[in-house]
Amino acid sequence: MNINLQQIATINSPFCSLVDMPIQPKGASNTYASITFKDEFVEGLSDLDGFSHVYLIYYFHKVKEPQLKVIPFNDKTDTPRGVFSTRTPMHPNSIGLSVVELVSVEKNIVTIKGIDILDGTPLLDIKPYIENFDKVEGEVKSGWMQSSVDEVKMKKSDDRFV
Question: Is the pLDDT of residue 153 over 80?
Answer without folding.
Answer: no
